[in-house]
Write a structure and sequence with these properties.
Order of helices and strands: HHHEEHHHHHHHHEEHHHHEEHHH
Radius of gyration: 29 Å
Number of helices: 18
Structural class: mainly alpha
Shape: globular
Strand content: under 5%
Helix content: 55-70%
Length: about 550
């Protein structure tokens, strides 16, 4: 009894301390207001919204495993003779970076498992961000008021690429050293200042003495700090602006529908977090990745015959291999266009287009109202075609990054394969755009047929005259609502009178190219008025005059 009474007293005291502590915090910080908003926030339950959570949770795994690896890794480029437990490399001179990588793999308890989980988490992190951005692009979730969040997301993607390359280069093995040799060539190709930048980054002529310690600082401090800050900004904007959602019964452009944050979303996302942890642990334990002991330490006069970069930087390698050998000699200085254009100009143009696309589409449409309903990709055929064309463009460059492997597999010369990929780099995206746009229009026609004829039942009947016909049933209200709820702007038209500035003429042409091709859906006047009401922005926004 005394023990039970003592436990009750401690429980009472703990409860009073928690209440008083919460009251003290609430008096100084907006705790109650924030908690009330977060707990009542509605989260969509569609599977496509899990992509961002995969990126977030894989980054958590990266942080946890990275802290563990930091305890044992030494980024020094000072060389010594290896005397560790891996017998094939004993007596070989290598840097401390490579020595400690081998020690983590063979001597630290659980080190190889943690290192492989870390590597797999990095691959999943970059892939999840890329696919998440594609989901946002194809569904139009970048439109007002989420343009800033799109910019944050693209910046996160760029930082993830930089973080992955920095971590990939740290072991100082023959494979990562080959990647650094390519990076040095890329930096040196910058006109006028390239040589000086290379000397500064590497601490002298390649390979220098400072590049790995500097990449280590970038990898564990600078870029992770920026990523954490941007993820925080991204989540704050998501909470403030609310999620987008797919069209459905009760879902309009003026509300946010979904289960509340607590307890529904909290329970589901906690389970999903554990699933991501488990899958990454299984990959780290069962699927070998980056076996650095097979490559050996980096030597500037050697290169691995099987050197291939990770997939997220493979497009740079492909650009290098497809670019013709163009060089220009100016006043005794060589400008290496064959390196500068595919590795610096091309990525710069691509990411600039990504950053600016929401504002470009807003300018083309003249639509500056808020959008909270996701577009079905088929209802925006031009945008969808552009996205697929970009994916195909990237895929061709990625394949070109391993053109020697492809040529060997198909028993063709590398020269023939290179020319095939050069042609494909131009032709394949154009074909992908045209086919995707036609496919989207065909899907719109299918939706129109489903609205007019109903859903096919699969039952075939025969009339007394011998004619065969398939029976149909009416669409469910949910399916009909999803098809009819679309918000596609009409193309801009030339004014009837007066001169038109060239800038507005260009805008009208682009608007027609974007939105002229559209399959009209059968709907009554009452249905159209309801659709217009439910897709209307939360507050009317007056469009400023075009200058």
């Amino acid at each position: 009894m005394p023990l039970r009474k003592r436990k009750a007293q401690l429980k009472t005291r703990a409860g009073k301390a928690a209440v008083s502590g919460y009251a003290a915090m609430d008096a100084r910080l907006p705790v109650s207001e924030l908690a009330r908003q977060l707990l009542r926030k509605a989260f969509p339950d569609h599977w496509s919204f899990l992509l961002g959570e995969i990126a977030l949770y894989s980054f958590v795994v990266l942080l946890l495993t990275g802290v563990y690896l930091t305890l044992f890794f030494d980024p020094s480029m000072m060389e010594s003779v290896y005397t560790g437990s891996y017998a094939p490399l004993q007596g070989v001179r290598m840097t401390q970076a490579y020595t400690t990588t081998l020690a983590i793999s063979f001597d630290v308890r659980g080190g190889l498992l943690i290192r492989q989980i870390h590597h797999w988490a990095a691959l999943v992190f970059v892939a999840a961000i890329a696919v998440h951005l594609l989901r946002i692009f194809f569904t139009g979730a970048f439109r007002r008021p989420r343009e800033a969040n799109w910019v944050v997301g693209v910046t996160l993607f760029v930082l993830a690429l930089l973080e992955g390359f920095a971590g990939y280069s740290l072991p100082d093995d023959l494979l990562s050293g080959t990647g650094l040799r390519t990076a040095a060539t890329i930096v040196g190709s910058i006109p006028v200042v390239g040589t000086y930048v290379e000397l500064f980054v590497f601490g002298g002529q390649f390979p220098g003495n400072d590049v790995i310690p500097r990449l280590y600082a970038v990898h564990i401090l600078l870029v992770p700090g920026l990523i954490v800050a941007l993820i925080t900004v991204h989540l704050m904007l998501v909470v403030y602006l609310k999620h987008t959602h797919w069209a459905g019964q009760g879902k309009t452009n003026k509300n946010a529908v979904g289960p509340p944050a607590f307890p529904h979303f909290t329970a589901k996302t906690t389970g999903f977090l554990l699933m991501v942890f488990g899958v990454l642990a299984l990959l780290g334990g069962l699927a070998q990745v980056n076996p650095v002991w097979n490559y050996g330490p980096y030597r500037a006069d050697q290169v691995s015959g099987n050197a291939q970069p990770d997939w997220y930087v493979g497009f740079l390698e492909g650009g290098l291999r497809l670019m013709p050998p163009w060089e220009t000699n100016i006043a005794g200085h060589t400008v290496m266009w064959n390196v500068f254009i595919p590795t610096l100009v091309l990525p710069g143009v691509v990411f600039t287009l990504l950053f600016l696309y929401p504002f470009f589409e807003q300018w083309v449409t003249g639509d500056r109202s808020e959008h909270h309903l996701c577009d079905r990709p088929r209802n925006r055929p031009t945008r969808t075609g552009l996205g697929v064309a970009a994916i195909v463009f990237y895929a061709v460059l990625l394949v070109a990054g391993g053109n020697d492997v492809v040529a060997f597999s198909f028993r063709v010369s590398i020269e023939v394969m290179t020319w095939i990929l050069r042609i494909a780099l131009i032709v394949a995206p154009l074909l992908a755009f045209a086919l995707t746009k036609r496919l989207c229009l065909a899907l719109q026609m299918r939706d129109r047929r489903r609205l007019t004829e109903g859903e096919e039942t699969g039952q075939v009947t025969q009339s007394v005259n011998g004619d065969l016909a398939e029976s149909h049933r009416a669409l469910s209200p949910t399916a009909r609502y999803r098809i009819l709820m679309r918000d596609v702007p009409k193309p801009l038209e030339l004014p009837a009178e007066g001169p038109v500035p060239r800038r507005r003429q260009l805008r009208i042409v682009l608007s027609g190219w974007y939105y002229r091709d559209l399959v009209e859906l059968p709907a009554t006047d009452e249905q159209r008025s309801r659709i217009a009401e439910r897709t209307a922005p939360p507050e009317p926004v007056r469009e400023p005059e075009d200058r």
